[in-house]
Amino acid sequence: MNYINQHTHTIYSPDAYPDATIENYINEAKKLSQNGLMFTDHVDIDSPVPMFFHYSNYDQYFAQIKELQKTTSIPLYTGVEIGYQPKSRETINTFINTYPFDLVICSIHVADGLDFYYGDFFNNKTTEESIKRYFEVVLDTVENFNNYDIFGHIDYITRYIKEIDDYDFSQHQEIITKILKTIIKNNKGIELNTSKGYQQLFPTFKLLKLYKELGGTYLTIGSDAHTPSKLQQNFQYALRVAKQAGFDNIYIYQKRTPVAVSIDQLLIEEN
Ligand SMILES: [Zn+2]
Ligand SMILES: [Zn+2]
User: Fold this and answer.
1) What contacts 24+ positions apart, CB below 8 Å, involve 244-250?
2) Domain count, the chain
3) Is residue 252 included in any domain, yes or no?
4) Ligand found nearest the CA of 159
C-alpha cells in the first residue's frame, strides 16, 4: 500500500524485536510497495521504567539514516515518539529542537510518574478513576506542550483496561472534548494506531468520530510496529474505519508538515 506507516520502531527502541533493523524495514517496505519509511523510535526522557532510562544517540542515528539513504531508493524519514512528562518539558523541547525531525509523536506512557505497563498507575484506583486521571494528564499535556505534530494512541489507557469495549465513553466525553478541541485549535493531529489488533484500534470509534465532528483534520495511521512484519498491520481495516468516521484523507508528515493522502486511493475493494 502506497501509504507510509507513520509509527515505526526499530532496534533503536529498547522494546523492539531484534529483527527490527532499518535494513529489514527497507526490505519489508519494498515487499509491501510502501514508498517510504517513517521511523519513530522511543525517547522517554526521565522515564521511571529502567528499560527506557537510555535512548539513542541521535547524532549517530541521523548519521546512520543519511548513510543508508545513499544506498536505497526508498525515502527514509526520521521522526520520534516522545514519552511526555510535565517535569521534563524543557529537556524534551531542547531535544526536539536539536534535530530536523519529520514527525514528532507525543505519547503518554507514564502519568504522575507512574507506569502503566507494570501497573503502578492503577494501584489504589478504580477503573473509572484510572481513566479519568489519564485523560486529565492528557489535557494538561495538550494545554501546556505544543512541540509535537500528532498525539499518539490518545486513549492508550484503554489498552490496560480489560473491559475496554464497555468503558463508559459518555462519562469521559466532556474532558475528551476539551482535549480534542485543544489539539484542533493548535493545528495538531491524532493517529489511528493499529497495534491493538484486528477490529480494535486506538482511539475507539466514538473518540475518532468526535474528533471529526469537532473539526479535526489531521489523522495519521500508524501500526506502532516493533518488528517489520507489523509494518502495515490492519491498515485496510483502519482505512475503512477512518472513512466511516467521515475522513476523506489521512496524512503523512515531512519536515513536520502534513501532506494529505486520499483514503479512496488506498482502499482495496473487498469482494
Ligand atoms: Zn507509545
Ligand atoms: Zn510506539
Assistant:
1) 244/205, 245/205, 245/208, 245/209, 245/211, 245/212, 246/209, 246/212, 246/213, 247/212, 247/219, 249/219, 250/3, 250/192, 250/219, 250/220, 250/221
2) 1
3) yes
4) 1
